[in-house]
Structure formats: structure tokens, C-alpha cells
Amino acid sequence: MKSICLIPARGGSKRIPKKNIKLFHGKPLIAWSIECARNTNIFDKVYVSTDDEEIATIARDYGAEIPYIRPEKISNDYSIDKDVRNHFLNWCYENSLDIKILCYLYPTAPFITQSTLIGCRDMLIKNNVSEVFTISKYPNSPFRALQLNNDNTLNYIWPEFINTRSQNLRESYYDAAQCYFFGYFKGIDNSKIMGYEIPNMECHDIDTINDFINAELKFSILLKKGII
Question: How is domain 3-136+173-225 classified at the architecture level of CATH?
Fold first, then answer.
């Protein structure tokens, strides 16, 4: 099956200027995703979709291909992943590139591992589901979540679970925001998706400077333990 990895990396990050190419443990942040994807040897091509020439240059330096410079209309603050993905799929169709598996890998996922990418791919193929993505278990049950009111008082979002023992609450998972595998081959059940579970320690959202600093600290621990 022709498998492609697509890494979306726009240049207009505001909370962390030039986030996708900011140095993270000695490399541009996006380099970790590119190198991990290439080193798995499960992808025919690794592409980066970007609107930024500097990102494009760095991506090429680390072995990715730039199919085009992404249009501004799908590179602004209101663009969504589905639009970026569909734009790429249309380009593939126009260039007679018959994709059977597409991995949509974030450029802000330095914690991604080869085993995670391969595991997601294998789960997709084995189960014939339409999508597989990384998930992680909530360390504390979201059913005990609180909300802050305008007068600074608190109330439970789900008051029916106030007196339920935590061990009796249903386990819940969140999107670990690393990679998403989509299947376009025969036999796919488009009504089903699956999650590939990874430990909390091996995922970290990077949206703010504080996130970035905490991610570097966590990454240092994983490096010392030989996990990354």
C-alpha cells in the first residue's frame, strides 16, 4: 500500500513566534517529526504542507518534500486540519498519486516515536477502520470536573457523579495530538475509528511558551531513560 506522511506547518504562530522551527533540544521542532517519520521506513514519501518559505527550507534540509506552498486561505488562524488534509489529497489526485494510507503528523510532536507510528499504521490495517490516532488516559477523571462561574464560585459539571467513587467512574481518554492515520483502501469501515494508547509521559501539547519549557524538561527525562 502506498503510504504517505503529511506534516502541516504554517508560519503564522502567534503565541510562540515561529513555533514550528523554534529550536527544541538542538533541532528545529519540526525536525523531530520529519526524522521520526523517515526513520520508520513505512512511508513512501514525507511531505510538509506550509505557507512559509523558511519552514520549507528547513523541512527540505531534514529530508521532507514540499509539494507546494500552501495557499493563504487555508493557512490562517481559522484554518482547520480537514481543509489542509483535503487540499493535499486533491493535489495527490491531480498528480496521479494513489494514496492508500495517509499519516497526518503534527510538527509539534517531538515525543513521537517510531513504535507509535508503526503501531498506529498496523492497527489501521489490521482492523480496517477509517482512522487511528494517538490517545492517552486522563490521569484524573473528567467526570469530576469543575467549572468557574462569573462570581468565582465553583460547581461540578456533572453533579450526578459527586458521590461516585473514582474507581467506579468510567475511564476516559483524550486526543494525544501526535498523529492521525487515515485509510483509503478496500474494506474500510468508515463508521469506525480506533485509538492507539500512549503513556501521559510520552505526549505533551505545545501551545504556549510555558508548554514549550515544560516539554523540554519532560523530554530531558525521557532522553535520560532512553525512551526517546
Answer: Alpha-Beta Complex (3.90)
